[in-house]
Amino acid sequence: MSAIIAIGAGIAVMTGIGAGIGIGIATSKAAESIARQPEAKGDINKALLLGCALAEATAIYGFVIAVLIILFLK
Amino acid sequence: MEDLATELMSQLETKISFVIPIFEGIPVPASVVVTWGIMAFLMILTLVFVRNLKMVPTGPQIYVEALVGFINNFFEDILGEEGKRYIPYLGTVIIYIACANLIGIIGITPPTKDLNVTAGLAIMSIILIEYSGIHAKGGKGYLKSFAEPMALLAPINILEIIIRPLSLCMRLFGNVLGAFVVMELIKIVAPAIVPIPLSFYFDVFDGLIQAYVFVFLTSLFIKEKME
Description:
The structure holds two protein chains of two kinds. Chain A is built from three helices and no strands. By secondary structure, chain A is an all-alpha fold. Chain A has a single domain, classed as F1FO ATP Synthase (Up-down Bundle). In chain A, helix 1 runs antiparallel to helix 3 and helix 2 (15-36) packs antiparallel against helix 3. Chain B is mainly α. Chain B has one domain. Chain B has seven helices and two strands, in the order αββαααααα. In chain B, strands 1-2 form a two-stranded antiparallel sheet. In chain B, helix 4 (87-102) runs antiparallel to helix 7 (195-226) and helix 5 packs parallel to helix 7. The N and C termini of chain B lie far apart (51 Å). Classes of the chains: A mainly alpha, B mainly alpha. The A-B interface holds A 46, 49-50, 53, 56-57, 60-61, 63-64, 67, 70-71, 74 and B 5, 8-9, 12, 167, 170-171, 173-175, 177-178, 181, 209, 212-213, 216-217, 220. Chain B: It is found in: Cell membrane; Membrane. Chain B: It is a multi-pass membrane protein. Chain B: The chain crosses the membrane at residues 28-50, 86-108, 115-134, 172-194, 200-222. Chain B: GO terms for molecular function: proton-transporting ATP synthase activity, rotational mechanism. Chain B: Keywords: ATP synthesis, Cell membrane, CF(0), Hydrogen ion transport, Ion transport, Membrane, Transmembrane, Transmembrane helix, Transport.
């Protein structure tokens, strides 16, 4: 039983893949656009932080679900 | 593994620090006591730093003015002229969350690791967001704004009232809890020296970024509701 629970928690944490790819793309584009237009750095940073926060939220949900699975299903 | 699970479980529970002995006894959670501590600390700091204010700032007044100016500029950029009235609340929240996340460094459990605290903050945020919509557009305009950009999307707009505070609350709580779990795991693997630089990332950097993101999203939603 505990092995199945561990597998379930592992699958839940896989949401991190999407968040990682999303933040990676966002950061690469931000670096590109800062290189192109250094004077717009402040605005780009703000948009980047917002995008990262929203992308990261999915990873956090996956993590919370995984912790809940481990703690409450055993 | 089993020990870690039980320890995590005990960390997730709301700890009662003491019980007020009136009526049936009112339990006071530890997070509330820590919050009182932060409030007292911030109150003392404000009282100390606003004494003897001068027209030409000298000494610590320069830093206080720089901080207040930074917060005011940051929110004014997002909220615009008519959103100025919400800046004091948002500034208070960012200072509180930053202090609450950073207090873990001196060995006190951060209050934001309690789901009830983040839920409370998120509920206050959504009340402010909806209020700002009503204030800016009036009751009728506020109700009409649910049918935008077309009436078919009204259910999704109404769902957002629940989803927004839920995601604000879970983001803050999940980040603080996630940093805590990762730090516990690192402390099991390498108890000496290694946790120190990582603690700077997980406790200091992540805590400040989350405080920033929380108020940033709240002010973005306020701006969206006011338009």
